[in-house]
């Protein structure tokens, strides 16, 4: 199926996809993206293309916010909607993007006030596990 044109400037859909794949790999890790690509099927390929081009190739590549800010916003949105598997993935991504453990803690504390203590409590449990996993796999970056 032909891809629609990119919404930014004169970039093509193919360029947005390539840019998105590069950012997706940098943020989520090669291992994560390789596993997602290996699971891709005829049924899911359009969805994978959509998120690679739009989420990663159009939004995450915009110059208006740096990756640490995008990570903080993303974690907050995932807490708000109770998307816990995605939250776990984005805690590791936030560490990869340079957020410190203390900054992740602050994001979750902020969410406790605006999104509720039960959600923050659950987020802390997930984040603690994912930070330990990240440090084991990639080393402590404080």
UniProtKB/TrEMBL annotation:
Gene Ontology MF annotations: peroxiredoxin activity
Residue span(s) of domain Carboxymuconolactone decarboxylase-like: 46-129
InterPro entries named among the record's database cross-references: 4CMD/NDH-1_regulator, AhpD-like, CMD-like, Decarb_PcaC
Organism encoding this protein: Intrasporangium chromatireducens Q5-1
Protein name per Swiss-Prot or TrEMBL: Gamma-carboxymuconolactone decarboxylase
Classification via Pfam families: CMD
PANTHER family to which the protein is assigned, alphabetical: 4-CARBOXYMUCONOLACTONE DECARBOXYLASE FAMILY PROTEIN, CARBOXYMUCONOLACTONE DECARBOXYLASE-LIKE DOMAIN-CONTAINING PROTEIN
Family annotation (NCBIfam families): decarb_PcaC
Superkingdom classification of source: Bacteria
SUPFAM superfamilies in the cross-refs: AhpD-like
